[in-house]
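Exercise 7.
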Amino acid sequence: MLRPSQEAYDGLIRRVKAVSLLGSCGAVLQWDHQTYMPPKGGAHRAEQLALLAGLCHEQFTAPEIGDLLSLAETGELARASGSAAAVNLREIRRAYDRATRIPATLVQELARTSTLAQDVWVEARKASDFGRFRPWLEKLIGLKREEAKAVGRGGTLYDALLDEYEPGETAARLTLVFAELRIALVDLVGRIAASGRRPDLAILHRAYPIAAQEAFGKAVVTAFGFDFQAGRLDVTTHPFCSGIGPGDTRLTTRYNLHDFGDAFFSILHEAGHGLYDQGLDPEHYGTPMGEAVSLGIHESQSRLWENFVGRNRAFWEYWLPRARQVFPDALDGVGLDGFVFAINDVRPSLIRVDADEATYNLHILLRFELEQALIAGDLSVADLPAAWNERMARDLGNAPPDDAPGCLQDIHWSGGSFGYFPTYTLGNLYAAQFFAKARAELGDLEEQFRRGEFVPLKEWLNQKIHRKGQRNRAVDLVAAVTGEPLNPAYLLRHLREKLGMLYGV
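Solution. The predicted structure, written as tokens, is:
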């Protein structure tokens, strides 16, 4: 006969999994919204997503969930430290306590407003007209402040939002880590600029047929281990990966006939996210043990495959001969040294997603600073474009000529994702540390890449990170995998070694 706490736990898991299934229906609608939905379908889609968000919130915050959770916590399952059940109870409690503090009406209004705001953002970006998007951003910030106040957490309003993406993290701690990183990056970028060395970027801007770009990108990530029987690749305005559920992981990108890197590296990036989603334990789907640890850890996977693998010279020793077969005209006369130098070009850019490894984090730190000020009320939405341009000039030496390549370039704020941006830099830091550990345990990764062997690295990540679910919080996972806490020295060493060779600094 089952103990009451076991029966309560089993009932709790059934209900939590049902909520996850309902949420995955919303994920399909969100994916469709950004890929194939007709332009005039936005208003109806907003109502659909608002309804689903409300239903998920209602079901997850139902008193029955709380009762089952409390009863399950009284038994041995909760005390079995490190067990799947104990992890699930710990994280369900955290999510339940957060969710029950947020009114259902607010959840629905956020879902509705963010869906409509994303459509306005797309049009505002096309027209480079921040004024068109401004009232929607003001409304979203107001709603996110309401959410942060409801959640409480004891720190700043921004900390309450950050906690959704990076549990347990604070803006104060990140500010300290990022300040050290900024100083080192500004110095490195300055020395590279002073070196006088420049790659020939024209080779990346020849005509690369789009159908061939798609085929080549899919071939590469298939070699990584991404399963296209359980995934797909589509086109969108702003690339993303959507993990719908077991057997359904959807990548997106955007193509430019005269920019090889735009689609290729975004495919690698999103496939990194996709490999994490495909690597989660399907047995635990719908529970914390079958979910990613944090967005920072998720981002570490995308940045690892995009940069530590995809911009690695050994990677191209294998793939450039094959790329020449796919793009014979565009790569005619292009040597390995010139190509590798071109894809590792370092120079300040206006667009975050186009930024190189050395300057990318400066883009993130700018956004981290601005969104904290917006949520705190220290910066008005009306003043955002000017503040953005001022900080771009300060940190990267160039200011955008208009709004599209400025404060309108990212989709995140239109979706209400405040607290999301710092996870990108955390991801870069985690990626460097994970890659160093993988190299220590798997041997000569570069030699494996030269042979076209990438699955051993994927399987190592599956074992060490993906299959662990939420057993550990991000900071603890890094320590468990690498044997030490988060250490920015690994990223700085990676950049100095690779870029030092290319630029002689």
